[in-house]
Amino acid sequence: MTPKARVLAGLRRQPVDRVPIYMWFHPETARRLAALLEIPVAAVAEAMGDDVRQTWVNNNYAMGGIVHERDGEGHTDQWGIRWVQEDGFNQITHFPLAAADMDTVLAYRFPEAYLEELLAPMAELAGSAGDYFLGCDVSPCVFEMYWRLRGMEAAMMDMAAEPEFADVLLGRCADFAIVLAEAACRRFSLDWLWTGDDVAGQQAMLLHPELWRALVKPHLQRVTAVGKKYGLPVAFHCCGALRPIIPDLVEIGIDILNPVQCNCPGMDPLELKAEFGSVLTFMGGVDTQQLLPHGSAAEVHAATVRLLEGMTADGGGYILAASHTIPPETPMENIFALYEAAGVSREEIFDRAGVIRTRNSEQ
């Protein structure tokens, strides 16, 4: 099967030759794999057999799409947010609306003028549409974009004490995600629209579920509606313990939930599959906190086999992925054991890497 056909069949709970895969690697993990396979970092996903090609077009590109050579280096993005790399990841050091009043919020300009620049990474992937399952990520959509502009403390205070103030900026965050989603859906042959908002922590929601329902849910639904308008399945990314709002996500039209952070309360993948498997496809659930970095290869293999058996018991509705980016301390043997459990052998990975090397040498 082609990668695209494999994901489509998996989403529809039709027979597949193997479970669809979409894995995320920490930048250092990707570099280690690239060195081992003797290929460019950009080709790691192809060598490992991932079936999805996707990129960010919203502010997550500024966070994850720009990789600096060393910690301490940084950049200021089109929103006026300042990022500095720490431990391989970009972290915010300046929130442009941290001290904003309502007039400042209303005067603030989202980067509409940079629309072509923001969509450019998606255009580069558009040639993959024939073979791979093509996705466009317009996250962060509402709350997470809000706090990147205001700072987490100010954002939480706004929503608790000044909900009318908060609603204005939350709405503007969603408005810009909608602009990007509309443009991407019109221009590219997408297979899904990817949304996201990290609104949960390791133990519980960051916001009370009722506050989320009052202030965030209506705006997120407007973003989701764009994908539905174009007949696309809509994915939603949120780390942490978001179990209280999963029924709400189903209600507003979410079809795929990622990353199923299995160590969080209420987020056991098999329990979620039993409760919501008829209405949601799950992507994720392989533990990146203990199992992958600290377990043995045999333990990784066995746990992944159990996960796959449980998550595909109804014939599909699951995409294999980790519960976060695979961390750099993960042994290579554990990564290969994970893929082996999914039916992708080490030999197959090295063979694909050889094809990539040959192709690059001929260019």
Please provide a written account of the structure.
The protein is built from 17 helices and ten strands. It is an alpha/beta fold and 363 residues long. It is globular, with a radius of gyration of 20 Å. The model has no long low-confidence stretch (mean pLDDT 95). The chain is 47% helix and 11% strand. The relative contact order is 0.14. The strands form two sheets. It has a seven-stranded parallel beta sheet with strand order 1-5-6-7-8-9-10. Helix 7 crosses helix 8 (152-161), helix 8 (152-161) packs across helix 9 (163-187) and helix 15 (297-311) packs parallel to helix 16. It has two domains: 1-41, no CATH class; 51-275, TIM Barrel (Alpha-Beta Barrel), CATH 3.20.20.210.
Which structural class matches the secondary elements? alpha/beta
Q: Determine Rg (CA atoms, Å).
A: 20 Å
Helicity level: 40-55%
CATH fold call of the largest domain: TIM Barrel
Distance between the termini: 27 Å
Order of helices and strands: HHHEHEEEHHEHHHEHHEHEHEHHEHH
Question: What is the spatial order of strands in the main beta sheet?
Answer: 1-5-6-7-8-9-10
The dominant shape is globular
Query: What CATH first level of the largest domain would be assigned?
Result: Alpha Beta
